[in-house]
Every structure is written in C-alpha cells, then in structure tokens.
Design goal:
Length: 413
C-alpha cells in the first residue's frame, strides 16, 4: 500500500497529468470565490415518488465560477403513502446522521490514504445554519448565501458541499445508511445534470484539516446536507501554498481525481479497474471520438492489440481515463483502451443543457478545426457534450454531429 504522503502526491500528480491530456486550458471545479483566501458504461435512471428536486452543489475558495445542477422528479404519491413517509422522516435522528456523515467522510479519506478531518464547533454551527436556511427558502441556494467569513478562523482553503434529497429517495432513517447515500452522491454525482466531480475533489482535498456537518429535514420531507471544510492559520501554514493551488488546478470539470470508494466501486470487479504499479485511473462520464483514421486499441498494460481496431470518426462510450506507464488512455471496452493521442475525449451530461452564442460563433469539427461555418449571435442550442478543442485548448460544446462552438463565444443557460 502507498503511504499517506505518497498517495496524496499521486492524487495530485496523476490528476495533473490527466488534466494536461484533456487540453491546454485547465478549468477549476465549480466554485464560489473567497477573495481573502489564497466495455460498456451503464447509466442508471432513478424514479422518485417525490414532488421535490434532487440537487447538489459544491464550491471552494479559488475560482469565482460555479456550476449547480438539479434533476427534477415527478410526484406520484397518494395521501396514505405521504402520511407514512412523513412519520418516517420525522423519526430521523439528525445528531446521529451528522456523526455518521463525519465517520463516512473520514472512511472515504482513509481509503485514499488521507488523514481524517476534525469536526469543530464553528464549522458545525455554520453548516447547520446553512441547512436550516434551505428549509425556509425552498432548496439549496447554489451558494448564493455562502460566506466563508462565517467560518472564521477556519475559513482558509474554504470549501462547501451542499445537497438536498427527498426522503422518498433516501428510504431509511438509519444514520449510517443515510450517510452512505449522501456521501455516495457527493462522490459520484449520479443525479447531477452536469457532473463535474467537484464534491469528490473537496472531500478528498489533502490540504484541509477541519470540517463541519449540517443536516436539516423540511416539513415536506426534503433532507438537506452541508459539509463546510477549511483550515485555520496554523493548519494552513503547514502546507506549501503552491501545492494547495496546484490541487485546485487538477480538475477539468469532466473527470474525477484518481480515487476509490468501496461503495461506488462495488461493481468494478474486472482487472481494468484494479490499480497497480504504473496504472492509475480516474472516472470519466462521457466518451471519445476517433479521428480520420483507423484507430488502434491497446490492452490494460499498454500493448497494442492485433485483433481489434476502431473505425475512423466513430464515437465510443468511456467510463474511465487510465495512465498506463506514463501514457494516457481512454477505456472503451473490456481490456480495450484508445490512446489520448488518437481520439477526442468528451463529457456527457445526464440531461439536456443549452447554450446561447454571444457572437457569430465559429463552428469546429471533431478534430478542433474551423469548418468556416458560424451560428448566429443570440441563437440558442441544445448541447449534449463538452470537450477541449485539441488545437486551441479552449472548451467547446457540441451542437450537432461533428459541430462544436467554443466556450469563449457562448454562455451557458
């Protein structure tokens, strides 16, 4: 097993390598700024008998941009079910859930060779204030109400993860089970329409020491969760400022940092998902497109396969990025990987998103080349993929088959 120090170094170094492989411009995790602080992939659809939303949002203290995602669910309850459900969620032991959430968070960190976070009253109090506020405002506030000054003196390297989940989806009052469900959601972002794994990044930050947990239950059965994380001056001073900053540069908003979680990884039993020397992996929710040539496949050891190849200009679902002997590959089948040099990687969203062109925006093809076409200013487009233009290093969104417009010529709606 790796030592804690070596494991943290691998998290940063490998993620930085993956970020580099995805393009020249690296974006941050979805954030709220604190100006004072430095095979086949299966997507599971879940139906809920709730009239509320599932939502998660995460931030940190580095970048002022933030992305918040929600998934709506339909109400199919009857009065008898509602009464029984209400009786159940009123029996949630909030204090026990908060303890269980801290335990599960630190269990996740231990699996990744990271030290446990210490709960402190200041952060616990603020986390509870945050979740209590959601019960009266109708839902998580996309960090609009977050103020890291209220976390003082633990407001250095400040981060927040917040979420809401209806009790009908939680389905239990057992504190450990609730803690595992919300930690799993923070880790995997299964219900985010535009997942970016920022929650996972916050929970696995090797450069924070303290945390507070908040849990509140609204009268309609919505359960709210908050994790408020940071450092005081003494703990912050233990770290090299450039190392802290480098960690925030490892997330490209499309893949997860190198990590593991037994609950999330329970179905990953093949050798493709087993870490070993010179083989590290990170989750990707998306796929790759091959270029204008027959594309070779490689096995999990980086050897070129002689039995299979991929056709030119074809799309392949991918659930994982792998760094094999220092080179980056994308997992497209059992024991089948395509080199990052031979394909365009992209992230998919779990539900449709849209963008609006801010100018007569240029259209690029799958290879990042300017096609000579444009879309009109203020035109709105449904998008299903996001990638990094391999020629310009700028993020781009797909508006049609083999047609993309760049982030610097659009706004997300």
């Amino acid at each position: 097993m790796f030592s804690k120090t070596k494991r943290a170094a691998i998290l940063v170094a490998a993620s930085a390598l993956l970020a580099t492989s995805l393009g020249g411009n690296i974006a941050y995790a979805d954030t709220t700024a604190n100006a004072n602080n430095t095979s086949t992939v299966t997507t599971t659809s879940t139906n809920s008998n709730s009239d509320a939303n599932v939502a998660t949002a995460t931030n940190d203290s580095v970048d002022p941009n933030k992305t918040v995602t929600t998934t709506s669910t339909n109400d199919t309850t009857n009065s008898s079910t509602t009464a029984n459900t209400q009786a159940s969620y009123n029996n949630i032991d909030i204090a026990s859930v908060k303890v269980a959430m801290l335990t599960e968070l630190n269990r996740l960190r231990a699996q990744n060779g990271l030290s446990a976070l210490t709960a402190v009253g200041v952060l616990n109090n603020y986390a509870q204030v945050r979740t209590d506020s959601f019960t009266s405002t109708g839902g998580v506030d996309n960090h609009a109400g977050w103020n890291s000054a209220n976390m003082y003196p633990y407001n250095l390297t400040a981060e927040e993860n917040i979420a809401q989940m209806p009790f009908s989806m939680i389905g239990t009052t057992d504190p450990t089970a609730i803690a595992q469900k919300i930690t799993h959601e923070f880790y995997s972002e299964m219900y985010d329409s535009e997942p970016n794994y920022g929650h996972r990044k916050n929970m696995l930050n090797p450069y924070i020491n303290y945390v507070g947990v908040g849990v509140s239950v609204a009268r309609n059965g919505m359960v709210y969760f908050s994790q408020e994380m940071g450092n005081d001056q003494a703990s912050y001073s233990k770290y090299n400022a450039s190392d802290v900053y480098s960690y925030f540069l490892t997330n490209n908003n499309d893949y997860a940092n190198v990590s593991k979680y037994d609950i999330a990884d329970a179905d990953k039993t093949s050798a493709d998902y087993t870490s070993r020397e010179n083989y590290v992996t990170a989750d990707l929710r998306g796929g790759v497109s091959t270029k204008n040539a027959v594309t070779p496949l490689y096995d999990r050891y980086g050897n070129k396969r002689t039995d299979l190849e991929l056709s030119p200009n074809t799309d392949w679902i991918s659930d994982m990025i792998a760094v094999i002997n220092g080179s980056t590959f994308y997992h497209v089948s059992t024991n089948g990987f395509v080199s990052a040099n031979d394909a365009l990687p992209w992230a998919t969203f779990l539900s449709g998103a849209s963008v609006t062109a801010t100018t007569n925006a240029k259209i690029y093809d799958n290879n990042g080349r300017d096609t000579g076409g444009t879309v009109n200013t203020n035109s709105k487009w449904i998008v299903d993929r996001r990638a990094v233009n391999p020629l310009t290093g700028v993020k781009m969104y797909r508006i049609s088959t083999n047609a993309w417009i760049q982030q610097n010529q659009l706004v997300q709606n």
